[in-house]
Sequence to fold (94 residues):
Amino acid sequence: MNIYVGNLPYSVTEGDLRETFSQYGKVDTVNIITDRFSGESKGFGFVEMGNNSEADAAIKALNGSDFKGRNITVNQARPKSDRPARGGGGGRRW
Fold:
């Protein structure tokens, strides 16, 4: 199951997330989303866990919990196709 983790402190590393989620089961991958220009964290990421019951336990335990000074949001990630389309960048000006 792919898990969305939001409201992360900008200083959090993928290792920090892996360590926290591995308390609930096997973590397959961890990905913190970063700004493509600055390389700084955007404050959210994704954790992939193969076992759905372990993933559900992690979501229930960690959603709203304090993680390094911030209350994090943890829920099942929506597939890309379920997200609303974002407004585009303006088009050409004449």
User: Anything to note?
Assistant: Residues 52-62 form the longest helix (11 residues). The first strand starts at residue 2 and ends at 6. DSSP finds two helices and six strands in the chain. Strands lie at 2-6, 27-34, 41-49, 66-67, 70-71, 73-76.
